Amino acid sequence: MKKKLLAGLFLGMGMAACSLNAAASDNLFKSYAYGTPMADYKTADGYYDCSAEIGATALCLDNVDFIEHKFMAALVFSGAKLIMVSLVSPFDQDLYASAAGTLGKTFKLSALSDGKSQLDVIQLAATSPSREVFASKLQNYESGGLSGGTLSYTFIEDVDRDKKFTDIAAQLAALPDNVRSAELMLTGEGSDSALIIRFSFPKLEANKVAEAAKKPAESF
To answer: I need a labelling partner for 141 at 20 to 30 A (CA). Which of 73, 109, 114, 121 fits?
Structure first.
């Protein structure tokens, strides 16, 4: 099934629709809390090792409900602690539109990526001379990504709709460390097409990398 452009949907929602409520208890998705030990899930019913398929240490659970659809949930771990939750499903145009619309109600669209480059939507909005120019550039990028078989939309939660930012980096810098991101990803072609919704805390993960870099280098 052909993937249709959804940039118009985001524009119709004002591009800045967002919730001013922080994510409860640093939950990545529903009750899946960031930093939960992997051991907690290994002993729970229904979870199975899917590390080979995901390409990282992961446990999966089938038939997880979200937006009236059944997803496979992939829980990704680092240091035996939960850092990311991805919802995976075969691609469906109605599901694509529903997921985008749902995320757009409580998150702000901040970037697009085609797997080779990134379009900073915040910067584009700040520098475009008109709404028409902004919409045209956004839709052209989206069209190119869809025709290439890979496109992801990055949404950021807890963004003040009245505050203007120069780019996505400035937006993230102004937000708390536990700000949540959601990536709506489309990959593959034809029967191999998949839709993935990936929830993470980008600033918490970046902080861990920064802290590790501050440690003295180990002698070897």
So the answer is: 73
Residue 201: both structure tokens together: 């805390």
User: 124-144: string of b/e by CB count within 10 Å (b at 16+)?
Assistant: bbeeeeeeeebbebbeebbee
Query: CA angle at residue 215 from 211 to 217, to 5 degrees?
Result: 140
Nearest to 109 by CA among 75, 133, 70, 141: 141
Q: Are 107 and 156 in contact (CB under 8 A)?
A: yes
Tens-place pLDDT, residues 20-79: 333 446 899 999 999 999 999 999 999 999 999 999 999 999 999 999 999 999 999 999
Predicted TM-score (pTM) above 0.90: no
DSSP run (H or E) holding 69: strand 69-78
Q: Which amino acid is at 18?
A: C
Any idea where the domains of the chain sit in the sequence? Answer: 7-18+27-212
How, if at all, do strands 118-120 and 48-49 pair?
unpaired
Residue 176 CA to residue 178 CA, distance in Å, equals: 5
What span, in angstroms and rounded, lies between the C-alpha atoms of 21 and 164? 18
Residue keyed to tokens 């949404």 = 155
